[in-house]
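ok so I'm stuck.
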Amino acid sequence: MRHLTPLHSRLNVLPRPDIANALHGIKVEGGMIDTAIWGSIRVESPIQYRTPAKRDSFAFGEVLATGTPASTGEQDPPVLTGDIIGFDLWQIGHELDAGAFYPDRRTFYTLPWTHALCRFSKYDANGGAPYPCGDWLMFEPDEVRTARWLIGSDGTLTLPGGLRGAVATNSNQKSKVRTTVGKFLAAGLVVHRTMRKIDWKLHEWYGIYNPLDAVTINLPGHGQRAFVRWDDVEQAVEDVD
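replied:
not stuck anymore, here's the structure
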């Protein structure tokens, strides 16, 4: 069997759409699914990954290999072989046939280390909390604060779902120049090192960012999560309410 070693800070990643299926209460084993009416029937996995994908296509994957750093002195990879990670399917490098390298696998992706958004504990990959990697931060988008802070208070009541997550920030309402507010939840190790040098709290603050820079997912039991690079967070607001 041939052995692959990713070079220049890349990961080899096995797509795991079965985890996305499990999050939605769909369990497919061996191409079969149990139904209350028809019993066991053969089906394709309801959620499948296809490339190329559009921007903001959160996907689950299993790390097959972490490779070697792009340069001497670079830090270790943010994930380990066997980890379950989240990534944007839009950002993969290549999709390659796995047969010659990984037995019983159909395809695998190449992915730069820096594009691993988060990792999941082996014990809670089917619904547990994700942990951001590297220079990524995790936010919970907040539509009410987006309206109150970025539009201003006009005496009207703002309800979740009315803004679709963002507001335009110039006179052209059809513009893609938008921004949103999210509650900070966690940060990758690289960001933690940077934040320690800044004179404000590591918790209880909100970030303002362009949603086009975020990768989002709805996690049952946890709500929506948005992953944003540290360099793409434009403002930090401490919550003094």
